[in-house]
Amino acid sequence: MTQPECAASAAPRVVHVFRPAEARIPNGLYQTASSQTDLLRRLGRANPHDPDSFSDYFRLLYQLTVPDECAIQKERAQLHFEQVDSLFKFIEDNTFPVLVLSQRRTGEAADSPTDAGAIYDTAKGRGFFLRDDWRRLQPFLINLLHSSRDRPPFSDYLVPAFDPDCGLYLWTGKYLTGLDGVGIQEFGPEDYMA
């Protein structure tokens, strides 16, 4: 019995990368990594079928981005990987999680509770979330910029889940879901600017 030759006989494909005219790449390491990829592509050294291209990418990226003022190299040399992990962030974390406890589905006249409500009530009784709780809550979490937490109109609809230091907030405003859902609805684009 012979095996079909899928990969070997496949014709080369063209990949198109679109860059929206108004889109901005986040500053910092993400922007550096994107620029590095573009540079290697223009030099003909970004070949996904050549393992050496991955080595080139990560070697150059590491040289460009690992700041010694963070003491990352020193901790790395001493094999303190937990400290390296806490010092190095590939993508800056500038958002906080918000739990959606109720939503309005497309075509419905009223809000309905999400499955997150029961999970939250149980966790609130014990004072914390278990790992499994966090996994089950993922579909009901949205992220908002830190700068929006204390600024209207967002601040009007945010309540700390436990205490203000826990980092998790509850969304008390409208949340639209379903085929025509837009998530948080009340605000215009200007409200999302930091």
Question: Could you characterize what this model shows?
Answer:
The chain is an alpha/beta fold and 194 residues long. The protein has two domains: 26-87, no CATH class; 95-192, no CATH class. The chain contains seven helices and eight strands, in the order H-H-H-H-H-E-E-E-H-H-E-E-E-E-E. A four-stranded mixed beta sheet has the order 4-1-6-5, with no helix packed on it. Strands 3-2-7-8 form a four-stranded mixed beta sheet, with no helix packed on it. A hairpin with a 6-residue loop joins strand 2 and strand 3 (112-113). Helix 2 (29-42) packs across helix 3 (51-65). 8% of the residues are buried.
Mean pLDDT: 77
Structural class: alpha/beta
User: What share of residues is helical?
Assistant: 25-40%
Order of adjacent strands in the largest pleated sheet = 4-1-6-5
Number of helix segments?
Answer: 7
Quick summary:
This protein is of the alpha/beta class and 194 residues long.
What labels describe this entry?
single chain; 194 residues; alpha/beta; four-stranded mixed beta sheet; 14% strand; disordered N terminus
SSE diagram, text form:
Blueprint: H1 6-9, H2 29-42, H3 51-65, H4 72-77, H5 81-87, E1 95-100, E2 102-105, E3 112-113, H6 116-126, H7 131-137, E4 141-145, E5 158-160, E6 169-171, E7 175-177, E8 183-184
Parallel strand pairs: 1-6, 2-7
Antiparallel strand pairs: 1-4, 2-3, 5-6, 7-8
